Amino acid sequence: MASTAQVSPTLHLLCLPFWMLLFYCSAFDSHDYANALDKSILFFEGQRSGNLPSDQRLTWRGDSGLSDGSSYHVDLVGGYYDAGDNVKFGLPMAFTTTMLAWSVIEFGSSMKDQIHNAQTAIRWSTDYLLKASTTTPATLYVQVGEPNMDHRCWERPEDMDTPRNVYRVSTQNPGSDVAAETAAALAAASIVFKDSDPSYSNKLFKTATEVFEFADRYRGSYSDSLNSVVCPFYCSYSGYHDELLWGASWMYRASQNSSYLAYIQSNGLTLGADEDVYSFSWDDKRAGTKVLLSKDFLEKSVEEFQLYKVHADNYICSLIPGTSSFQAQYTPGGLLYKGSESNLQYVTSTAFLLLTYAKYLSSNGEVASCGTSTVTAANLISLAKKQMDYILGQNPTKMSYMVGFGDRYPQHVHHRGSSLPSVHAHPQHIACKDGFQYLYASSSNPNILDGAVLGGPDNKDSFSDDRNNYQQVEPATYINAPLVGALAFFAAIPTTHSG
Question: Where is the Glycoside hydrolase family domain (predicted)?
Fold first, then answer.
């Protein structure tokens, strides 16, 4: 285990303004981060399902999934494919939406000319989630596509001929995890559109209210209700308690309604408020909830939320080398390492929480308490920057893990649409099994999936750019979503030097 830069007992960085420290010997400046931000949002256009708009920028994609839901007499056209396959999974899609919205809420003012594209990326998903939430009473549609059949094919989304089965949770077959995450997504998005489109914002929040009530009243995990089709793909390993607290927190953030405050106060402990968990992902929302609710304690002295500040500190301190609470693992090159499959999802989500918490702390003149030592906002920003820079190419392989960024990036992305000839270059249908010749080909992907951040290297900084190596070379929407906010933060820092 290698650490990033060691820190002093007090961990204070008083010698230089933090932005000077951040960019000392840095390979990237604000222009580079702005470029990466642009691409990180562009990636979502490559994941679109449905009728593509006239301003579609990744022009190698075409319309797909135009009859989704029709055999069940519902309209489920639209939304996002989660990764390199052609299934629409509701839990990661909703989490992706929540994180895109949170990125805009916290760092939208730093997105400049990209704010419209970020809002468009959110709306592409919320339009779909609204359909999934309101089509049938007391029902939430949570998946389109039969994943086992889909994974036996290698075909473009424009060609897919595997079953487009539709799966839902209901009062008889509950799914509090996916429903509460959907409520969180709609509530967070309602904040994003509050000024620019008030009527849409109201619709989002009204639907979020109904979906959260459904999630809370009919409790159970969707992994139990739909085990054969959601597991092991997006099984809810953490259960549904974390999503209920997360969903309630976003309902409160969006409305400031005292009923949600009362819900959090009454249910927090039973839903995991006092549990320390050291990762944040599409499955486990506990660390994110602690950071989210700490804002109200820091800004408004909501005493009931002091617990969340304490546990947010515990989470942050676990990441910082030199503190008594440090327990994270870093690669020799300095990358946070949580797991062998799609590790960069944890890196981007952690970096986002570091920067968001740094914002909350610095806005209120506070620090994080790590036993006898303290951690400043500048420390958190510095660690987040190291993670961002590693992803963008400042790493032992000298490779950017964002497709299309930098001089050297992966060429064999595990992604059907990117790896097969586009429908424009090859209009003839490519059947299910015929596509495997492209999966196994040694040639580079013909279509560049700009902005896609892949699974990333292993715990020794090694990376194999092999299309079959899905653990390392498959992108996912939930890798990119928190990255959008993190890149916006660094794109806004004024720099005059790139060394």
Answer: 33-487
